[in-house]
Amino acid sequence: MILTADSGSTKCHWALVEQTGADDALRVIETRGINPVTCSTEQVREIIAEGLLPNIDIESVEGVYFYGAGCIANAPATLELQGVLKDIFFSTKEVTVATDMLGAAHALCGKEKGIVCILGTGSNSAYYDGEQLAKNVPPLGYILGDEGGGANLGRTFVSDALKGLMPAETVELMYTECETSYAQIIENVYRKPNANRYLASFVPFMARHRDIAEMRRCIDRAFDNFIERNLLQYADVESMPINFVGSIAAVFEQELKEALDRHSLTLGKIERSPIGGMVKYHTAL
Question: Which of 98, 154, 163, 231 minimizes the number of CB atoms within 10 Å of its CB?
């Protein structure tokens, strides 16, 4: 059996599968997220002990492949997480920890070269040469970057709404459906933690009302910025498929395709979650 994990800061999906085939007895278990930058070793042990170990036969696991946010190659926190996993899965032959971008590349491209993008709460992209991530334009987070991600989309829309660039009826509809107000928005963005997640919480409203012209322009602007400030920095990007993973890419597939068309780029695969592709990659090795 092999165990493949796709982890963000909020939740982690663990896929347990027979090594002989990706469709053979696949089980996915969800636990709290594990980010080595923000989680202590004690928290990692607690999350795994409570959410994962009661659901698996630890001695049957032959390989652990953990892909996650914050898992920077050779960084002390990443090596520490790998050590904890090796300690927990003491009888396992192989334990690897790598960035979620490499996990997305394995899931979407396998061993073929291509551009890989993550569009979730944040955004990221990289050129994958079929073996490793050969180039990465730094995402820079939701304040300086993360164009096209959920927080960036939400920030763009909320800013337009509060500055009077959205129809008045759309702003009132936002207040009603999102159960918020001008004062509450300012409070959540500037005085409470996790402003990025709060801003991303407006994305479902945006998706429901994407037929409003001003809303559509807001969405298009975010995706155009993602393409211009990230994708166009990769050499020969016009000759390769652009692959996406993440909830934002899945929800706005049509808008994303049209944005790529405007820049003469080719859409490859779009997957809401990379876990299935990760499993196929490792069971095919």
Answer: 163
